[in-house]
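Allow me, if you will, to draw on your knowledge of protein folds for a short while. The matter concerns a single protein, recorded as an amino acid sequence and a row of backbone structure tokens. Kindly check, if you would, that the fold set down in the tokens agrees with what the sequence suggests. You will find the record immediately after this paragraph.
***
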Amino acid sequence: MALKFLKHKWQKVTVIVAGTFLILLIAAFFVNSYWSPILSAKVKSAVASGTDSLYTIDFSAAELHVLKGQIMLYNIDFKVDTQVYNRRKAKGLAPNNLYNVHVKRLILSHIHPFKLYFKHIVDIDRITLNSPTVQLSYQLNHTKDTVDKDHRTAWQKINKTFKYIHVGDIFLNDIKFKYKDYSGIKLEVSELKEMNLQANELLIDSATQTDKSRLLYCKNIIADLNHYRGITPNGLYKYSIEKLKLSTYRSQLTVQGLVFEPVNPHTFFQNTVKDRFALSIDSLWLNNFDYLSYHKYRIINASSLIIHNGDFSLFANPNKPNRFKDKIKSFPNVSIFQIDADLKVDTMRVKRFNVTYSEYNKKSNMDGSIHFNNTSGTLLNLTTNKAALQKNHLAHINLTSYFMNRGKFETAFVFNLTDPNARYSYTGHLGPMNLAAINSATMPFAMIKFTEGTLKSFDFKFDGNRFRSKGKVTLLYNDLKVKILRRGIERSTLKNKLVASLFANIFILKHNNPDEPGQIPRSYNINYKRPPDFSFFKAIWRSLLMGIKPTVGYDEKTQKAATERMAQGELNKKNHQIKKEQRKERRAERKLQRKLKKQQKDAEKAAEKDKH
């Protein structure tokens, strides 16, 4: 019966295939049972030898599926051996970063078990870790690579166990990441969610052991962080990032949708005396970013930082403290110097950025703002690195903007990054614009409204430090006319002071500079002493204002004379009013006397009439 069944060719093929499949199933069962403990031992040995026993790995179960070409590990704990760490720390050999990782399930796909067992080669197409929990702690144990007695590479440490290790792709999806920083005065803890990590072409062999283009022996590591939200430790600001991506192959960090703003702008000044600011950036690129230096020692080293499309606004706090405090930290060179990081960025470029400075004026009871629209420019030598500062201690900033979204504004700054007195210099040029365009600033700030006038150019050049600034201002304009304003009865309203406006336009202001075509224009040299509580921006504005006022005829001498003249005019007006009232009283008194005399005569006539 059996022989009859096998006399056809297709029947023989069927039996052979079925038998082979059955044999493979039986073999796979025994191989899985036999190799699982061997696999466990191999993995634990590899981790111990590869990390010099600093880390241990443990898991509840390991399964090898030969037919699927798959290994699965369950409940993995990759953690630090604290005793080994403390011994290395005492010798000055402990790393700055420590990891603790827990994974419920790890899948190694398309492995080659016979290469592992017979040839001692780890060759895996893909490793997938789903929802791992990663805890990274940072403590500054050393600032440069230490020289251990065992200075072998990772391949030299494992080559007795494995000839080489190769992994095509590594995926860590939906990572829960906690970062603990012990380097400061207080422990700082950050937590991240919706984070993904992908590594490609991990290869540890004799060739890659000295390959500087690889990070952690991977050709490329890509980290993605989505929808990150947080609040600053003081509770005043909230921040968010829509997307952050790091590529080690391209040495590039990109950020999209960065927002930093007050938690509650309306009540901000009730909780602090600091100025309020807000920042939003559409996209940011950090190019040629040395991630390994940052990871090891928190050194930020990059060739360029590019910022595209954004807004920055600063609102001065109206609730100034009673005691004066030196706002030297508002100087850019001082702010850079005090960055608590080893920073070196060769070039920073800003494209299409809007900057707004706002302030509340108690006299006008209004908020005023100065705008610099569509700002673009470069900053060269943004650094706190000591070696870089010894080579070049100057930072250069060149900016092009549109003042109040009208006149083209070009300025250049030079900052000394090491001078204790925060030396700096700057030049600037503002092109033609209608002066009425700046009324939104001059009305609340100075209670002056430009009714006519055309700015032809505004040029300035200054050298300064934390104590004073010296420079020259030239302002060219035509047909200047203004209105002097006073505070209205209703909030946020201003009324025209008719007499003062007429007086200013007729007797004070110089309506043109130069006064006549062909004449030499007026320029003024400035020597301004900075009050300690003035910020950098405010000190610059006051320095420029000292040159603007005399240009338009409103210098201190004229202002004093005008004030005295106005005061005398008010006094004359008052005296005139007094005399008018006195004349009115005399007329009333004479009228009353005439009335009394008439009444007396009438009484006398009535008495005479009664006699008769």
In short: The first helix runs from residue 2 to 5. The CA atoms of residues 68 and 110 lie 7 Å apart.
